[in-house]
Amino acid sequence: MDQLFVHIDQAIIHWAQAVLPDWMAVIVAMKIPIVAIAIFGPVTMMYLTLIERKLLARIQNRFGPNRVGKFGLLQPLADGVKMLTKEDIVPEKADKIAHLLAPILIVIPALLVFAVLPFGRNMIAVDLNIGVLFFLAMSGTTTLFIFTAAWASHNKFSLLGGMRSVAQMISYEIPFVLSVVPVLVVVGSFSTVAIVEAQPGLHWFVFTPWGAVGFFIFFICAVAEVNRTPFDLPEAESELVAGFHTEYSGMKFALFYMAEFMNVFTVSALVATVFLGGWQGPILPSWVWFLLKTYTLILIMMWFRGTFPRLRADQLMGFAWKFLLELTFVNIIVAAIWYEMRSPLNHLTAAAILIVTIIVLFQFNKTEIPKKRIYKYAYAD
Amino acid sequence: MFGIGVLKGMAVTFKNFVESYYKKERLTTIEYPEKRLAEKERFRNFPFLIFDEKPEDPRCVACDICAKECPPQCITIVRAQDAQGKPLKKPATFDIDYSICMNCGVCEEVCPFDAIFMDHEFELAEYGRFEDLNYTIDRLLKPKEHFMKIRPTDATRIEAELKKKENAKKAAAEKAAAAAKAKAEAAKTQASQVPDTKPETKPNEPAQPADPPAEAK
Amino acid sequence: MIPLHHILFFSSTLFCIGLFGALSRRHVVGILISVEIMLNAANVNLVAFSRWTGLIPVNAQVFAIFIITLAAAAAAVALAIVLTIYRNRKTIYTNEIDLLKW
Amino acid sequence: MEVLTAISKVGIYVIFGVTLLGAMMAVTLRNIFHAALSLALTLIGVAAVFFVLRAEFLGAVQILLYVGGIMILVIFTVMLTTRIGDRTIPTSNHQQWPVLIGALLLLLYFVRMIGKTPWSIKSELAVVSAVQIGKSLVSTFIFPFELTAVILVAILIGTVILAKSDEGEEKS
């Protein structure tokens, strides 16, 4: 059961070698993971939209889409068809080329990143030895393409949304990138497979002190990187209409939507791989563990969406620069100390240092409540 | 401690999420076409005409009061005439233009013969806007039982009044018949004493459609 | 694999394109873009040499990393200067910024 | 199997072509925003070349730093400095043709020089891993590493002061 998909893969390759000329067989062998990802990506995206709408509905004590198909299972198809048939309006003064290019450019990194995720034991499309760094680089490029989308639609709202989203993604990218460093320090290699192998059985990194803090920071920054609540300032419906994708309709808007949900999947998959031990788990087959962890993280993200109000712009920035960044720096140092101190009480020291830093940072960031002012001349008495 | 508010908020939504699965009163949405919400009794939508047994003779006597009273003037009635052209107490055509009617219920109040009432039917989508929504008499007529079913209290009250009026009429008719009989005997006794040349005319029955004895439900 | 000099041809053409851009562009940001291209050409050369001929291949790649970081720093300062020029003179076309002291 | 090597070789030259095309567009396009986008294309092309040369760490750093960082700066500046309805005057100034000839001559010289010099090509091609780079950064190159850190901090402060909108001074 564990190596189910690997056996399927081998079977197809054997069949290809038997039937096709050998160079064609090699191409087929290379193409299998590509086809798998090309199917898996959009399908997960479609059913994530459905799961999100169902979950949010249940949180708000109502049903969720259950008209189309048995339990609303065909709703994503209906949305897809609707998006296809919707008219594609391009603003008259918009920068035609950039307006068309932006959605395409946003989907490419979202799809490329699937190649680096270890779905199960030796079930990884490309075992890059810079796996995690490749992921971070790809998520870095989406910032630029979001801004091209905002600038190309020649509309004040989308430009404002674009500026806000770029500011947010840059300020959350630094803690996002640096909170993985402790794991790399301990594992010693970028490759995702090596990271997962370094967490055998139940020794996941999240149970170490620096791992827990790292997981907290990495997950928060992941939510911010994907522009989801409570950090969805760029698409704030209330004030910015729809942020950077205001002027998009029809299939282009669907591409933005698809990129967002694929990013949600890949980012929570990376968090699961780096901190929750990827496909490591006691009994269940490896890929079941991987999907289980990723989907719990996705559900937590959707749970966030059902609970939290939107953060103000300055709170958003303050949180990243004044709290997360310092915590990440300390976390890296603590991980190094923990790694060097072989003695068993390294957990204690690491935990102690981290708790002290968290308390100190909270003191610094405490919003100072002004003392009650006394207006000498206001009172008539 | 720090961030407890965040966890409390999450706990609330989690409770909401979990309870919506097993607590029935949390999910109040009625999935409309399959399950319906019973209308309130006094709910009034477009009017309809009542007939007692046969759709041919509705209670309506084409007195035209409702047509006059109707605020948006959407009722048009044409009185029926028999072969010789004598007007009958029956409408030949009775049109209500549902696209104009604002279901105010004035026609129901002003109708002296309790012939027109407000219905509970509201799924009346049509294809044509003009001719389809102009309801003629055959689409308006509905049996008495329908009225009893949708508005039991009003129906019973009105039935009771009708029955009382009927009894009163029947009693009046019997009294009149008895009086006529008594006068007849008196006349006969007089005639026997003094032959009277004037022929007795039996007081004729008031031209009243014979109302079937309405059995009280 | 492809021979070394093909990559050197590529990087030298890239360099020359950058040079042409830097010297012939009227828009200040255009000049900055061309300078970035020239720096990238140098990087490609370094990596090519580290792969084919370098005695200690690591050094060349570390040089390349230093180039990237300092190019980022240089771009930041240059764009800050461009902003101040634009704020004072309301123009970013090089032929209109020809007075040293005004 | 030689079909595959042929395809991969063609692939490399395609990457070269795309990057050069991007560079040419970045240098010649009239609309500065499109020029910035084609610079992004060139940078990604150069990162692809790094991947082809088995320098993955450098390719990833290039994408992370250049496309994720510098490109945003460039696009922000482009956005802040283009006025709506700006008169788009020809992109290149009067010295365009002599520079073109000069650049071509330089290119010719480069090509001749590359063709003639006997490169001492090593027998097996070196592959540098991220670990080696990391180690050498903090061992042999510790001084330039710290110096870059100092420079970056200085530039951080300098840029903020330069680009700070000086409403304050005008009012006082």
UniProtKB/TrEMBL annotation, chain A:
PROSITE patterns recorded: COMPLEX1_ND1_1 (PS00667), COMPLEX1_ND1_2 (PS00668)
Listed EC numbers: 7.1.1.-
Single GO MF annotation: oxidoreductase activity, acting on NAD(P)H, quinone or similar compound as acceptor
One record GO biological process: aerobic respiration
Keyword Ubl conjugation: no
Domain of life: Bacteria
Keywords associated with the record: Cell membrane, Membrane, NAD, Quinone, Translocase, Transmembrane, Transmembrane helix, Ubiquinone
Transmembrane segments: 23-48, 100-120, 132-153, 174-196, 202-224, 261-280, 286-304, 316-339, 345-364
Quaternary structure, from the entry: NDH-1 is composed of 14 different subunits. Subunits NuoA, H, J, K, L, M, N constitute the membrane sector of the complex.
Membership in a protein family: Belongs to the complex I subunit 1 family.
Name this polypeptide is given: NADH-quinone oxidoreductase subunit H
Gene that encodes it: nuoH
Automatic annotation (TrEMBL), chain B:
Pfam families (alphabetical): Fer4_7
Compositional bias (Low complexity): 204-217
UniProt keyword NAD, yes or no: yes
Spans annotated as Disordered: 165-217
Keyword entries, A-Z: 4Fe-4S, Cell membrane, Iron, Iron-sulfur, Membrane, Metal-binding, NAD, Quinone, Repeat, Translocase, Ubiquinone
Domain 4Fe-4S ferredoxin-type, first and last residues per copy: 47-80, 92-121
The keyword Translocase belongs to this UniProt entry's keyword annotation: yes
GO molecular function ontology, one term from the record: 4 iron, 4 sulfur cluster binding
InterPro entries: 4Fe4S_Fe-S-bd, 4Fe4S_Fe_S_CS, NADH_quinone_OxRdtase_chainI
GO cellular component: membrane
Protein name: 4Fe-4S ferredoxin
TrEMBL record, chain C:
One annotated GO molecular function: NADH dehydrogenase (quinone) (non-electrogenic) activity
Pfam families recorded: Oxidored_q2
Localization in the cell: Cell membrane; Membrane
InterPro entries the record matches: NADH_UbQ_OxRdtase_chain4L/K, NUOK/Mnh_C1-like
Reaction catalysed by this enzyme: a quinone + NADH + 5 H(+)(in) = a quinol + NAD(+) + 4 H(+)(out)
Annotated TM spans: 6-23, 30-50, 62-86
Primary location class: membrane
E.C. no: 7.1.1.-
GO cellular component: NADH dehydrogenase complex; plasma membrane
Membrane topology: Multi-pass membrane protein
HAMAP family: NDH1_NuoK
Subunit structure: NDH-1 is composed of 14 different subunits. Subunits NuoA, H, J, K, L, M, N constitute the membrane sector of the complex.
Family label: Belongs to the complex I subunit 4L family.
Function of the protein: NDH-1 shuttles electrons from NADH, via FMN and iron-sulfur (Fe-S) centers, to quinones in the respiratory chain. The immediate electron acceptor for the enzyme in this species is believed to be ubiquinone. Couples the redox reaction to proton translocation (for every two electrons transferred, four hydrogen ions are translocated across the cytoplasmic membrane), and thus conserves the redox energy in a proton gradient.
Listed name of the protein: NADH-quinone oxidoreductase subunit K
Originating species: Candidatus Abzuiibacterium crystallinum
From TrEMBL, chain D:
Organism: Candidatus Abzuiibacterium crystallinum
The keyword NAD is assigned to this record: yes
Catalysed conversion reaction: a quinone + NADH + 5 H(+)(in) = a quinol + NAD(+) + 4 H(+)(out)
Membrane topology category: Multi-pass membrane protein
GO cellular component: plasma membrane
Protein name: NADH-quinone oxidoreductase subunit J
Molecular function via GO: NADH dehydrogenase (ubiquinone) activity; quinone binding
Transmembrane segments: 6-29, 36-57, 63-85, 97-115, 141-163
Keyword flag Nucleus: no
Entry keywords, A to Z: Cell membrane, Membrane, NAD, Quinone, Transmembrane, Transmembrane helix
Function of the protein: NDH-1 shuttles electrons from NADH, via FMN and iron-sulfur (Fe-S) centers, to quinones in the respiratory chain. Couples the redox reaction to proton translocation (for every two electrons transferred, four hydrogen ions are translocated across the cytoplasmic membrane), and thus conserves the redox energy in a proton gradient.
